[in-house]
Specification:
Elements (H helix, E strand, L loop, with lengths): L2 H35 L2 H22 L2 H11 L4 H29 L4 H17 L4 H6 L3 H22 L6 H25 L10 H35 L4 H35 L1 H38 L7 H7 L2 H17 L3 H26 L1 H26 L6 H18 L5 H19 L3 H11 L3 H5 L6
Helix pairs in contact: 1-7, 1-10, 2-4, 2-5, 2-9, 2-10, 3-4, 3-9, 4-5, 4-9, 5-8, 7-8, 9-14, 9-15, 10-11, 10-12, 10-13, 10-15, 11-12, 11-13, 11-16, 11-17, 11-18, 12-15, 13-14, 13-15, 14-15, 16-17
């Protein structure tokens, strides 16, 4: 890759990650404000509506955006065709998603206000038809892409802060959501016209059939992931609606932190791919180093948040949300599990065995449903947190099984024992201190002391990871997507 190409790639990454980070901050501020302004039941309704929106937005996209970005980047001369076909294909899916999304809260026995809120969120499915993020990704116009999500969340947050003033403004949140998504769509369409790409719809059967077929594996993976993530909140809404607010707020904190797992492994993915081609020995050494480093680091974060979970929830969302603490204290342990399972999952993708990642996700989704129906009606939000952890363990175990078959022996239980001892020492130390804000850091120090004594290779692990990113193949050519 040329120096200019490297600078552009770095700039694109900074723009995308910066825009995504700022949009998450804006969204987090908005939801924290809603938790303090609405009743706990109404805030739970907002979390439920947002979960519906996440699930059905992936149904509307169904992997079409991924295929569109790929095809546009490879065949610029066909950009006008795909700019027509993909919104058309999405519109057909939105006409299915919208009524299903509208009916589900009624079938779940939700209050009328909650049902009406979900209906307003469902309107945004029509606007998502024109979410042309994929188009500008394919055209390598990352400035446009970075600005879109930031615009959406800043508008959402600003309107929430201005328009939601009391407990009576629940439905206003739904109108704001539809407005923010609509403005994002208008933003994309404006840039599309600026580049002289016409806005139109068409339904050529052969082309749409091929699009759906090409996108189906990606879309199915998206749907399975969404099912795995959103099922606990759907079960809570059905059986214990009074716990919606507690789980929703805890889950919002967890999801914000869990994006670190994706960024971490996405950053290492080219290294894994290169080393698998160059040297299996170097690959296994790098994975071992990455596993130790990531599980120690993420367990340290999970330990600290476990100790201060109740105080954090109360500080962010209000005193009433101290009830969210136990759910967050349990759920946060999915973070080190997800980071650990990322090693076999991303390694399988690097080896061209991504279908087995889908199998692991399906097993996780089945586990989520089974554990959810078993634990949530009995333990409420705490049961949902346990469900999340249990399903994450299943995904890890299945991905690990296939990675050992097709790649080789990756780190697993034995490599987790020393961090587990460190966590135990940290939790035991924290129990000796009454003030959670002091106990958390002290427990972390105790865990770090165990790491210094029992796993002195950590410093070398960091050096190895840094060195692995600088291999000759990485500089000689661009990484090839499998």
């Amino acid at each position: 890759m040329s120096a200019g190409g490297q600078r552009r790639t770095l700039l694109d990454f900074i723009l995308l990650s910066g825009g995504e980070g700022l949009s998450k901050v804006a969204g987090f501020v908005a939801f924290a404000y809603l938790a303090r302004t609405l009743t706990s039941d109404d805030y739970g309704a907002v979390e439920l509506a947002a979960s519906f929106a996440v699930f059905f937005s992936l149904m509307v996209d169904f992997g079409l955006g991924t295929i569109g970005a790929r095809e546009t980047s490879q065949a610029r001369e066909r950009v006008h065709d795909f700019a027509t076909w993909i919104p058309s294909a999405r519109l057909l899916l939105s006409l299915i998603a919208l009524p299903v999304m509208a009916v589900l809260p009624m079938l779940m026995g939700q209050p009328e206000r909650t049902t009406h809120l979900v209906w307003l969120f469902a309107v945004s499915m029509l606007f998502l038809t024109w979410n042309q993020r994929w188009l500008f990704q394919g055209l390598e116009q990352m400035r446009v892409v970075a600005g879109a999500q930031l615009l959406r969340m800043v508008v959402f947050a600003a309107l929430v802060l201005v328009a939601v003033r009391s407990q009576d403004d629940l439905l206003t949140v739904g109108i704001i959501e539809a407005t923010a998504v609509g403005l994002m769509a208008a933003y994309f369409l404006g840039h599309q016209l600026k580049r002289k790409i016409p806005i139109r719809l068409a339904w050529p059967k052969a082309h749409l059939t091929k699009l759906y077929k090409d996108a189906s594996s990606v879309g199915l993976g998206q749907m399975v992931w969404a099912f795995n993530q959103q099922t606990p909140i759907f079960i809570i809404a059905t059986f214990m609606a009074s716990e919606l607010a507690w789980f929703g707020s805890a889950n919002r904190i967890f999801v914000s932190l869990s994006t670190f797992s994706m960024l971490y492994h996405f950053n290492l993915f080219p290294t894994f791919s290169r080393l698998l081609r160059e040297s299996k020995e170097a690959y296994f050494e790098t994975v071992q180093s990455s596993f130790r480093f990531s599980i120690w680091g993420s367990s340290l974060i999970a330990l600290g948040l476990t100790v201060v979970a109740t105080d954090v929830c109360a500080l962010v969302f209000g005193d009433d949300f101290a009830a969210s603490g136990p759910a967050l204290a349990v759920m946060i342990w999915s973070l080190p599990i997800t980071l650990a399972s990322g090693h076999p999952r991303w390694s399988l993708i690097a080896a061209g065995k991504q279908r087995y990642v889908l199998v692991s996700q399906i097993c996780g989704a089945v586990s989520t449903a089974a554990l959810g129906f078993l634990l949530i009606p009995r333990y409420g939000a705490l049961g949902a947190g346990m469900t999340n952890v249990g399903a994450s363990l299943v995904v890890w175990a299945v991905a690990q099984f296939y990675a050992r078959q097709f790649i080789g022996k990756l780190p697993f239980i034995v490599a987790s024992l020393k961090p587990a001892v460190g966590v135990g020492a940290g939790l035991a130390t924290a129990q000796l201190i009454d003030n959670a804000w002091i106990a958390g850091p002290v427990g972390g120090i105790a865990m770090l002391a165990v790491a210094a004594v029992s796993d002195r290779a950590l410093v070398d692990d960091v050096k190895r990871l840094a060195g692995a990113r600088k291999g000759p193949a990485a500089e000689a050519s661009d990484p090839v997507e499998e």
